[in-house]
Amino acid sequence: ESQSSAENTYSAPIVNPVPESEAESSSYFENCCLVTDGTLAGMKTYGKFAEANVLTNSELGAMTCNTTKIESSFGYLTPYEIIKDKKPDVLYIMLGGDIGTSDGDEMIANYMTFINSLHTALPAMKIYVMQLPPVIYDSDTVTNEMVNTFNTQLLAMCNTLGVYCIDTNTALKSEEGKLAEDYWSYETLSLSEAGLKAISDYILTHVS
Q: What is the C-alpha to C-alpha distance for residues 102 and 76, in angstroms, rounded to an integer?
């Protein structure tokens, strides 16, 4: 029911995944916020978003995006509450690092609730859902097949809700179908500075 009621919430037609566009300048990020789990936490240091506009902590995930609270200049609040106060022109979201430990359908359901709440509160704000990057190697917990399945669910979710979806998975994928070595840091066990820069550049060339 929530899916059908949210269809066509934007008046302009949505094409997903967002196709390549003429590159925006870095000033584009000035009015953008990012909500992310640990996947893009490094954007606080190496990304082009202002540090205060990157909302993240270790407890945030697709399952917990409606309940986890984050430190901010507005206080200790949920991402929804912070974004509602900040009122950015554009919001980017990358959640799903909890795949392998949470039920995929429940993750999508909570993700949808989060987006619907935001769109109701800030209908003029553009929302971009970012697909999860590939993993550097398959593990007992997470495989690239699982990532691909979740990303397919994200794309369907975006089409249902009428929000944008960008393919930040393919942007970081090697010919072998896994995360490119240059985009991974074995020291921090997270995306490298080069990987975060690649995502920032991809955002600037995929704007609707």
A: 25
